[in-house]
Amino acid sequence: MSDQHADRNAVQHFETLAIHAGQEPDAATGAVVTPIHQVSTFKQDGVGGLRGGYEYSRSANPTRTALEENLAALEGGRRGLAFASGLAAEDCLLRTLLTPGDHVVIPNDAYGGTFRLFAKVAERWGVEWSVADSSDPAAVRAALRPRTKAIWVETPSNPLLGITDIAAVAEVARTAGARLVVDNTFASPYLQQPLALGADVVVHSTTKYMGGHSDVVGGALITADTALGEELAFHQNAMGAIAGPFDSWLVMRGIKTLAVRMDRHCVNAARIAELLSAHPKVTRVYYPGLDSHPGHEVAAKQMRDFGGMVSFQVAGGEEAAVEVCNRTELFTLGESLGGVESLIEHPGRMTHASAAGSALEVPGDLVRLSVGIEAIDDLVEDLNRALG
Ligand SMILES: *Cc1c(COP(=O)(O)O)cnc(C)c1O
């Protein structure tokens, strides 16, 4: 991003940036929407003479660049990078930050695939990791080792909606000389901006709220400083797990409505959390917007609102939880989250099956909802009927 862009981005509001940052009308045609530049290579004016600055679409593609500049603006970062999936982004980050023998502190509640990437892939390459409860900054500090290079945090976390005080853990990271990585997938930059709170890198699965329509898989990294952004861009090109032009375009289209979608997700989820809290068949509700949530105050401090994800435990144990998942009709049984349509799932047997037997194992009677933006009365009726 040029400094000129950065200056303008600093004065515009989120909703405006979501629609305009990185997206000038097309210079050649005036098209208001960034075109899908479905192309692999670009004509050169003489050997090494690049016309529009583009050479080959793994290195950079104009549609992806538009998304990357948009992502940087939305997170208030210096550099945004778009990948083929959230896990591709995480893999690029790991291999940029870490060498064999380095250590990472990972949270005790996280996306199952993130845990699997550390435990089953990075470990084979000599990366060490240990688990800490990141909602307790002292526990994170106690987990540090001489070669701790990164602290990894997910807040709100998946699937238990745990809240980490980003500014407090950023302080732990700073004193340890480690980088703070925040997976901001559940909140989206509309609700929470980790770089402003001291994080070094933000990770997204753009598959979720950013895309918002369950029609694309993608990932992103956004950095607070230019130097790390350059290192990541080098690795993105060298390893190649880029977002393609059409996927980049879909994510950009989703982002334009992120703010209005998130507002509705939050309103609907708060209503669902209330309903579940009062339901006799529900033993515990996990939603950071509830006063009873242990992270409520921190969430209120660092988030604009509390998000669209709600988890709960069902009286009657695992079989009863599975039954609820099978009985809803409007809440579609499926993995993933963050789309306009409501989804329900059983983390223990679905998204978090890979964490079974580890410190990240989730309760068997847990159900996770991604509350969509349908009419709230229809959602309430569907859940009431499924709970019986
Ligand atoms: C889905 C998800 C990921 C992984 O993203 P993919 O796009 O599926 O590779 C990472 N973190 C969180 C919090 C997620 O929900």
Structure description:
The protein is built from 14 helices and 12 strands. The protein is an alpha/beta fold and 388 residues long. It folds into 2 domains: 3-255, Type I PLP-dependent aspartate aminotransferase-like (Major domain) (Aspartate Aminotransferase, domain 2, 3-Layer(aba) Sandwich), CATH 3.40.640.10; 259-387, Alpha-Beta Complex (Aspartate Aminotransferase, domain 1), CATH 3.90.1150.10. The strands form 2 sheets. A 7-stranded mixed β-sheet has the order 1-7-6-5-4-2-3. Strands 8-9-12-11-10 form a 5-stranded mixed β-sheet. The mean pLDDT is 95. Bound molecules: pyridoxal-5'-phosphate. Pyridoxal-5'-phosphate binds at residues 85-87, 111, 113-114, 154, 158, 183, 185-186, 205, 207-208, 217, 219. Pyridoxal-5'-phosphate (PLP) binds next to α4 and α5.
Ligand kinds: pyridoxal-5'-phosphate
Distance between the termini: 54 Å
**Rg calc:** 21 Å
Number of helices: 14
In CATH's first tier, which class of the largest domain applies?
Answer: Alpha Beta
The percent range for strand residues is 5-15%
**Structural class determined from secondary elements:** alpha/beta
Number of E-type strands = 12
Q: Helicity level, as a percent range?
A: 25-40%
Please state the overall shape, judged from the principal axes of the Cα atoms: globular
Spans of at least 5 consecutive residues whose pLDDT stays below 50 are none
* Structural domain tally: 2
Write the element-wise H/E pattern from the N-terminal end onward: HHHEHEHEHEHEHEEHHHEHEHEEEH
CATH architecture of the largest domain: 3-Layer(aba) Sandwich
